[in-house]
Design brief:
This protein is an all-alpha fold. Helices cover 47% and strands 0% of the residues. Helix 4 runs antiparallel to helix 5. It is rod-shaped.
Amino acid sequence: MNTFLADGWHGGPGPWILLVPLFWIGAFTFVRRVLWRGGPRGGRRDVPFGPRAAAAWGGGPQQQGPAPSPLETLNRRYANGEIDEFEYRQRLDVLNGTETTA
Protein backbone atom coordinates (compact mmCIF):
# COMPACT_ATOMS: atom_id res chain seq x y z
CA MET A 1 0.00 0.00 0.00
CA ASN A 2 1.35 3.40 -0.94
CA THR A 3 1.45 6.26 1.50
CA PHE A 4 -0.66 9.23 0.60
CA LEU A 5 2.10 11.90 0.75
CA ALA A 6 4.84 9.87 -0.90
CA ASP A 7 2.76 8.89 -3.90
CA GLY A 8 2.23 12.34 -5.42
CA TRP A 9 5.79 13.70 -5.28
CA HIS A 10 7.54 11.43 -7.78
CA GLY A 11 11.07 12.23 -6.69
CA GLY A 12 10.85 15.62 -4.98
CA PRO A 13 9.18 18.98 -5.20
CA GLY A 14 10.94 20.11 -8.37
CA PRO A 15 12.36 23.49 -9.33
CA TRP A 16 9.12 25.38 -8.53
CA ILE A 17 10.09 25.21 -4.84
CA LEU A 18 12.46 28.13 -5.52
CA LEU A 19 9.44 30.36 -6.12
CA VAL A 20 8.34 30.09 -2.48
CA PRO A 21 11.30 32.10 -1.07
CA LEU A 22 10.92 34.63 -3.89
CA PHE A 23 7.26 35.06 -2.99
CA TRP A 24 8.07 35.70 0.68
CA ILE A 25 10.88 38.09 -0.16
CA GLY A 26 8.51 40.03 -2.42
CA ALA A 27 5.75 40.06 0.20
CA PHE A 28 8.15 41.27 2.90
CA THR A 29 9.52 43.98 0.61
CA PHE A 30 6.03 45.16 -0.29
CA VAL A 31 4.85 45.31 3.33
CA ARG A 32 8.01 47.07 4.45
CA ARG A 33 7.74 49.60 1.66
CA VAL A 34 4.11 50.40 2.28
CA LEU A 35 4.13 50.47 6.08
CA TRP A 36 7.67 51.45 7.00
CA ARG A 37 8.53 54.06 4.37
CA GLY A 38 5.12 55.63 4.07
CA GLY A 39 3.76 54.36 0.79
CA PRO A 40 4.94 53.03 -2.55
CA ARG A 41 6.38 56.42 -3.49
CA GLY A 42 7.71 57.19 0.00
CA GLY A 43 7.75 60.52 1.74
CA ARG A 44 4.06 60.65 2.62
CA ARG A 45 3.30 62.66 5.75
CA ASP A 46 0.26 60.67 6.88
CA VAL A 47 1.98 57.39 7.70
CA PRO A 48 0.79 55.52 10.80
CA PHE A 49 3.96 53.42 11.22
CA GLY A 50 7.71 53.71 10.82
CA PRO A 51 10.36 56.32 11.54
CA ARG A 52 8.33 59.18 10.05
CA ALA A 53 5.28 58.44 12.22
CA ALA A 54 6.39 60.80 14.99
CA ALA A 55 6.82 63.63 12.49
CA ALA A 56 3.48 62.80 10.88
CA TRP A 57 1.69 63.06 14.22
CA GLY A 58 3.32 66.35 15.20
CA GLY A 59 6.40 65.10 17.05
CA GLY A 60 9.92 64.44 15.93
CA PRO A 61 12.64 66.77 14.76
CA GLN A 62 10.25 69.28 13.15
CA GLN A 63 8.93 70.33 16.55
CA GLN A 64 11.27 72.73 18.31
CA GLY A 65 11.10 74.26 21.76
CA PRO A 66 11.48 77.91 22.62
CA ALA A 67 14.69 79.66 21.64
CA PRO A 68 17.37 79.69 24.36
CA SER A 69 17.85 82.90 26.28
CA PRO A 70 20.92 85.06 25.57
CA LEU A 71 22.43 84.02 28.91
CA GLU A 72 22.00 80.32 28.07
CA THR A 73 23.61 80.91 24.68
CA LEU A 74 26.53 82.75 26.29
CA ASN A 75 27.02 79.97 28.86
CA ARG A 76 26.91 77.31 26.12
CA ARG A 77 29.47 79.15 23.98
CA TYR A 78 31.80 79.54 26.96
CA ALA A 79 31.39 75.89 27.94
CA ASN A 80 32.14 74.77 24.36
CA GLY A 81 35.28 76.90 24.28
CA GLU A 82 34.06 79.21 21.54
CA ILE A 83 34.89 82.29 23.63
CA ASP A 84 37.50 82.87 26.33
CA GLU A 85 36.93 84.02 29.90
CA PHE A 86 37.64 87.69 29.17
CA GLU A 87 35.06 87.84 26.36
CA TYR A 88 32.62 85.83 28.50
CA ARG A 89 32.87 88.34 31.36
CA GLN A 90 32.51 91.30 28.97
CA ARG A 91 29.38 89.88 27.39
CA LEU A 92 27.98 88.85 30.78
CA ASP A 93 28.39 92.42 32.03
CA VAL A 94 26.56 93.71 28.95
CA LEU A 95 23.70 91.26 29.49
CA ASN A 96 23.42 92.07 33.18
CA GLY A 97 23.56 95.81 32.53
CA THR A 98 26.67 96.34 34.66
CA GLU A 99 28.91 97.38 31.82
CA THR A 100 31.58 99.86 32.84
CA THR A 101 32.82 102.31 30.26
CA ALA A 102 36.53 102.86 30.49
